[in-house]
Structures are given as structure tokens and as C-alpha cells.
Amino acid sequence: MERSASLARSRPEEFRLVNADFAGYAYRLSKKWKRRFFVLEGRRLSYFGNEDEANDPGRAPKGAITVCAAYHWSDVNNGLIIVSSSGDLWKCYVEMTNAGEEILPALTRVAEHCRAVADGRATSGDVPSAAEVTAIRQFCNARATAEFKLNHFCVPLRVDAHVTRGWVEKRGAVMRSWKRRYFVLRENVLAYYDINLEGQPKKGGDLVQSIETSTVKPNGLEFKMVSGRSLVGFTETTDDHVQWLLAANTLYHEP
Prior knowledge:
Residues 19-67, 161-253 form the PH domain. 37% of the residues are buried. Strands 1-2-3-4-5-6 form a 6-stranded antiparallel β-barrel. The chain has a 6-stranded antiparallel barrel with strand order 8-9-10-11-12-13. Strand 4 (63-73) and strand 5 (79-84) form a beta hairpin. The radius of gyration is 20 Å and the shape is globular. By secondary structure, it is α+β, with helices and mostly antiparallel strands. Residues 1-13 have low confidence and may be disordered. The chain folds into 2 domains: 3-156, Roll (PH-domain like); 163-250, Pleckstrin-homology domain (PH domain)/Phosphotyrosine-binding domain (PTB) (PH-domain like). It contains 6 helices and 13 strands.
């Protein structure tokens, strides 16, 4: 059976880890951040206290949702917002390891599939139940996706996504001192952090309108924001400088 068809069906007759699209640890925010063991089967995402609990067929998950959409969330480094078909939001972040980030392509396939259903691009064999289609059209249509992006400062998971990351010496807006920050740009959503570590809270960011060369320093950059403000900085190397200028070509993406 094709992979796309498996996204729309559940497999209650089989043990959850047999055909899991992802099984591994991530952090989920409830009252505080907790490391949980996540299992993604098609569109069903559940989590357990640890791997042993997930491997126990008699153990029920601590929580479960049917995934409708997924976004890169910039409030924390390597953050995610996962939206259920009932409108629930799970705020998470994944570890910066090969094993931890394996959840991203699996969630991307789900998110792409749901957007295809929402705008009528999915084939009949891929379409979920009528009730689920209604929810998917509500949360995954182009307008809803664009509004969610602006409201939560996040970017939809996409197969063809481009991300630019690296250290930039940033000039303060009030105190004109220089501070080294780790910049992450997805589409036109820029966020920066004190250090490059998963779960680190964002120090600042904005929606970028353009990226240009600045003469303030060698390898200088000026990030012009949609809000009208500018952020000035510079990179250590010419290659890094060029990387950010080229990123201006990936600021916008059709919903």
C-alpha cells in the first residue's frame, strides 16, 4: 500500500510500535516542559512517560491527538506547534540529534497531506472521513495557515522548506553594543537565541521584508522588517554573509 494512504488510516489492530512512523523522545509543554516518549502512527500522535511505557501493550498513552497541522515554532529553539483535528495545540521542542529530529519528516508528510486535502489536491484514496475532512479544511486551508503563522510566529512544516541558521553579531536597538546571537530564519520568520541549544527561549525576532548589505562593519547585514524597524549585524566570514543575502530569495512561500 502506498505511503500516502497510510496517513489517512489508523491501525488499532496492531501494536502501536510495529508500524510507527516515529517513536522517540521530545519535550512537551504542559505546566512546564517534560520529556516524553512520542509515537506517531499515521495521523495519530500519542505520548508516554518513557519508552518502557510505550513498549507495554497494556499501557494507555498519557495523551493522544489526531494531527491536522504542524509548524516550526520560534518561541523556543527547535520548537514545534502541533494542531489536532479538534483544534488542540501541543507545544513541543525536539532534541538536536538525528534520532530526535526524525519526527520532522514524519510530521511533514502528515502536514502536507492535510493541506492537500484542504485544497482538494488529494486523491479519493487519501481522503479521511467526512468529519475529519471538515476539520482539515477548517485548520489547513491557505487562509487559516497564513493567519496561524502570523498569530503564533511560526512556519508550516513543508517538504521543500529552506532554513538559514548561523551566528550573527547583532547591534542592540537601545544600547549600541554588539552581541553574538544565533539566528534562525524560516521563510520570513526570523528568531534569535543566546545559544544554539534546543528549548532555548527566543531573545527576539520579527518578520523580515528584506536582507541587504550594511556598511556598518565588514560582512555587514541589515534585516529590514515588515514592522518598519531594522536590525543591523555582521558575520565573521564572507561565506556566512553571502548565505544570509541569498536567504532573501526564500522569504516568501505560497500557502
